[in-house]
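TA notes. Do not distribute before section.
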Amino acid sequence: MTLRRGTAFRRPAARRVPAAHLVVLTVLTVLIASVTLPVEAATRKRKSTKKAAPIPEVPRPHDPFAVSFPSSDGVRLVATWKPSPAGPSAPAVLLLHAFSRERREVAFLADELAARGFSTLALDLRGHGESVWKGGVRLGTSPSLQTSPNGFPRDVEAACAWLGPRATRVGVFGLSLSGNLAALATAAGWAEAAVAVSANADRFEKLAGTRPKSPTGLLVLASEKDPGRAGSARLLENLGRAPKSVVLYPGTAHALELLKGEPAAKDAAFAWLEARLGPVTPPPAPVATIPVPAPEPAPAAAPAPGGESR
């Protein structure tokens, strides 16, 4: 475009937005803000107030032998107590379930030990079964308990102390992780004998913490091909003091499966506890007797006819 001399240059006029369009844009902006801000605020609020899901209650049948007592840090421990007919003069065995299990799984051991004259206490470890309350707070099961010296060991110590006045001597029977607790009970002097089945000794020292770590009176049972358990059995034996023993069985059976599938393993455990804790022959059952009446004297014989002398 050619400009003529003396002609002023004018910029093109800016395009004006119709007023109606401005109104529509304003309304849309307000609507978007009114939706976005509450959503963001609600999201922030949910993140700041979110609580852990409550642990559901598990209904359980009534246990007429249930007892409870506190741990040293206030956990309400629940157990099944089956005293021997011999009362406090009989030895007792504390039965400990594996991690993430509960005391009902060892009920069959309680029955068999009772037949041999033992009293038994089957314990729910904290966070398991019915041992889930500390004050007003419900406890959960955490993997960190497997290596905490301030968790399960406190439960075992409290249970052994509870058995003290109710038994002449105390033994502990532990499965898997609880095999370490059984070993610790003898090392710390809470019990006189222990049986550890399929223990994982890698966790033993952490569970013990500052407590003594040299078990005594310990029998360790394990399967040769159960990963890591045969080596753990030998490690616990090396840490221990006499009397001590290790028995390995063929196969891969673990904990309860080993006891149920290998009768010799269960027999070895019972024999070990009997030898360490003293004679436990149950008293003979009373036999009802009925007195037999004495026989009455026979009547005198009548004389024969014609047999009289003249």
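Switch to the second chain here.
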Amino acid sequence: MSERFLIVRMSAMGDVVQSTPVARGLKAARPDCHITWLINTPFAPLLYHNPHVDEILTVPRRPNLAEFVEVWWQLKQREFTTTIDLQCLLKSAVATLASGAPRRIGREDAREFASFAYNEMTSDPGNHDYVSQLYLEQCHAFGVSTDEYIPDIFLVDEDYGPVNRLWAEERLDEAPGPVIAMVTFSAQPRREWPEDYFVALADRLTQSLGARIIIPGTAAELERAEALAARMAVPPIVFAGQTALREAAALLERADMVIGADSGLTHLAYAVRSPVVSIIGPSPVRNAPTGPLTRAAYIEDIPCRPCRPHQRCDHRRCMRELTPEIVAGAAEDLAASQGLV
């Protein structure tokens, strides 16, 4: 019987994107294996059309008893040989144990007492270029390399509908400078760069590069996006709330550059190979996309980085000292390297 893997990574957007190299690596090392991925329903589209994932099992973010029992039953039916918990929290550990796999792999840094579910654990060597390598470490026993760590999202023609309409309506193919998507918000507010800084950055790049600015985001972020746009000297295109998850990825792919904090959309941009400037504040530096299509902007002398969950910060030096001039310099350097000026 071929190996049957269960990958447990239920949320959130950026974390799921960062985890995609695991499926690719397992398929490369074990071509005959079968891979099932357990994921929260809202994030399942990130895995659609992924040739490395054979089956997607979805679970609501807050399942009721009937939904929980259904997922438990589905896991039991599949006779997994190995479960790899990439999330390492209590909810993912429960699913890992419920899978019934004889081999259950977690990490030593698991939280919420999740380690009860594992019979194998890997450590964090702390020397990774990008966070995806942390997850690839969990597959080392199967011959998976940590070298191929760039995430993947596989888009199809239907994902480009709203984006193609936007480009046509705004005549963005005729724009004199690069089209830059600015990811201004994050699910974790402490990771957000000050809005005043984004205004200053947009004003500088519209002058220095002739850039057209787009602000993507969710429907819940629309009001904030419009308020931010109203403060910019050249009105940007506010596209918050107008795209589903895969359509947002298509927008980021069509953009000439994406600038954003440590958020799901920024990692999504990396996955579709768009040039990315990442703004790293309280996050580990390895959360910044890396490679020739990227630039990372951060302040080096921050001894308290990374912030621990729920840690109080009274100075926010990691964001306050990361000025618009620093980020603009990174963006202008990346634009020059990609022939966008």
